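Narrative of activities, Objective 1.

The group set out to show that a structural description can be obtained from nothing but a protein's sequence at a throughput compatible with the screening campaign. Below is one input-output pair from the validation batch, recorded exactly as produced.
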Amino acid sequence: MLLRLENVTTYYGQMRILEGINLEVGEGELVSLLGGNASGKSTTLKTVLGVVKPRSGRVLFRDDDVTGCGVPERISRGMAIVPENRRLFGDMSVRENLELGATLRRGEDLKPDFERVHSLFPRLYERRDQLACTLSGGEQQMVAMGRALMSRPKLLLMDEPSMGLAPALVQQNFEIIKQVHEAGVAVLMVEQNATMALSIANRGYVLATGEIVLQDEASALLESEDLKRAYLGR
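Output recorded for this entry:
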């Protein structure tokens, strides 16, 4: 198993956010984590990446216990994240933003990685010298995804990839995520658009008030009345 959360409980101060989370992502899987606002989705990703430490439970990555490891260590082991709202460096060029994704690979030849990113996102080659702050929302999302891929991740964490995108770009964005997954990268994706997320996922989990209330194959969840009840909180 590539990633496993075992009975993870996470707090912010005295407020419990996650309670007894058990979640798995296999090698090459695309797993969708669904839920409404304040359900704990983003906190789950932060716990996986090491931004937040669980009060109890374990995070295992490639069968190693990484619960006590910080973010740089987890990234060096093969995690990468496409954060909510992209979080690019606006006063840096597209190429410079992409290079930041390979910070832990100093001294390596990055040409094959740039070629891979540009093959997925031809627009980024056209915009390579342009400042990130001048790009459209869709183009900025491409840079954020490309930056994560520059680290050659085993597991790509995606936090609300459709947020802030025009409807016409949402379908394109999910097609690109599907391509990345089909190229062999495992993905754990937090997303509120359940239908779109499950249409490309292998499996899904549903969070409600910090607990997993439903899990199944993506195709089964798409047809599930339980999903509608859990997702809508009624």
